[in-house]
Amino acid sequence: MQLERHALIAEHAELGAMLGDLLRHAAQRPPPIADIAQVRWRMSRLLLAHLAKEDRLLHPLLQRSGDPAAVRLSQQFEAEMGGLSDAFKAYMQDWDARRIEADPAAFEAASRALAAALADRIRREETQLYRHIPAQPPARTVDAGRVAP
Q1: What's the CA gap between 37 and 56, in Å, rounded?
Q2: Cα separations (Å) of 39 from 6, 128, 148?
Q3: pTM of the entire structure?
Q4: Please, what is the end-to-end C-alpha distance for the chain in angstroms?
Q5: Looking at residues 66-91, what average pLDDT do you find?
């Protein structure tokens, strides 16, 4: 599987759209619990897949790159991700439907804090980390006149 910068950025854009949906729902009174549950499920699924791609492809690629700046940044971002990942898991576990309905203002505040942390991470990945992803080699072309039958 090839790692492509544009695919990671597209996933970030999708996560950003989901965060916007989550915040719009969180601001409603009463909060639309079913809509919130659906957005949180989709967001969790995409975020976990995105993080797995970074763990399995991006960080090993950058840490083998031989570029000291890329290695250092990759290690720094990996170390920081644990805290953000734990915060996301806690947010998902702490805010069940009953608690959201009981304290919608606190849920909205928690959602805004999570969205701000994720948005900051996304911005930093795109401006600092992803620029170290090697350019994709051009696709090979086959010269039909040179291919033996």
Answers
A1: 28
A2: 23, 28, 54
A3: 0.85
A4: 30
A5: 93
